[in-house]
Design brief:
With about 400 residues, the chain is mainly α. It has one domain. Helices cover about 70% and strands about 0% of the residues. It is built from 16 helices and no strands. The longest helix is centred in the last third of the chain and has 44 residues. The radius of gyration is 25 Å and the shape is elongated. The chain starts with a helix and ends with a helix. It comes from Calidifontibacillus erzurumensis. Keywords: Iron, Iron-sulfur, Membrane, Metal-binding, Transmembrane, Transmembrane helix.
Length: about 400
Amino acid sequence: MSDKLDLMADGKRQMELCNACRYCEGYCAVWRAIEWRREFSDRDMTYLANLCHDCRDCYYACPFIPPHDFGIHPPKVFAGLREETYRKYAWPGKWAKALGERVSGFWATFVFSILFILGFMFVNGGVEGMLQPHTGENAFYAVFPQNLMISVFTLLGLWMVAGWGIGASRYWKDIRSGKSIKEKVLFKDIKTATLYAASLKYLDGEGAGCTYPSEEPAKSRRLFHHLVGYGFLLDLASTTLAAFYEHILHDPAPYPLLHPVVILGSVGGIMLIIGLIGLLYLKSKSDKDVNDEKAVKTGSAFSVALLIVAITGMVLLALRETAIMQVLLAIHLGSVAALFFTAPYSKFSHFVYRYLSLVNYAQEERVANEREAIKHAKLVKKAVAATSGISAKQ
């Protein structure tokens, strides 16, 4: 607890100094957001931490980074506070520490995969049954009964969505509760935030890219993030389309290679693999002086867990008509189950808090712009009136 309090207090100190300096004004949403504040509460710091995209431009531009006495280091402070976010707002809260800090995505995948392998062995008559090839229509369901598969992953999906939903509700209520401006969020704010999120605007560096993993601007991190994000969405679309074929058109899996379900899933899987390997590589090369060690570990654990899901899915697709299909299916389903089960407590949840932060920022930005427009209109009106008065006297 003391470490958390020290981190929060030091973060406030740094933001007050940054607000006085404003050398980084205009770098990203964070620096405009601090200009609208004179003091920083705990909820402000949590909001700013999740608004930060860890582009690190501010760190490399700042003349007051360590070993300067001011010790300005926003990327490290914000990374630490983001880690606290995943614990603070998680549901059920008692599970957050165990699942968020002590159980990595790799170990959760290992445990769930073993459970699925043992379950398949029980259903299919031991090791020999596990090595029997299953091909053709309903091949997967011959190994794992359809109703059981639906039940297991429906429960896990509800667990994941409930965890994210309750965490999002708690976070939103917290960052909004101290606002002096009680204006409602409008649809245009949500639209703006969605565009910011979909384009990864704050990893663009105004065209040059962000200073990650080193001081030299590069576009690779934004590209890899796009591959991961949109690759995941393509896989989600593939799964949704498969459910449509299965339950509406009564056309069960597995599907041929040129089927829309397989094409979407394959393209999405390849994008995920390239993007995740790229992000892990950049993380391994990132400046150790800027990193928060704990954040690096949890971020890498999530990336590895998602990478296992993508790789096992692609391998299963390639070898689905061989004798090791059941083993591969067990490992793949185990990795998916682990991802769902740990999602509310892992780095997987960061997109929830970041998107809500962008919505909050879009509303603050709109209000600030409207006020500036009104102020400008008044000044113009005043100037016109003064000019008219001078003209009348002449």
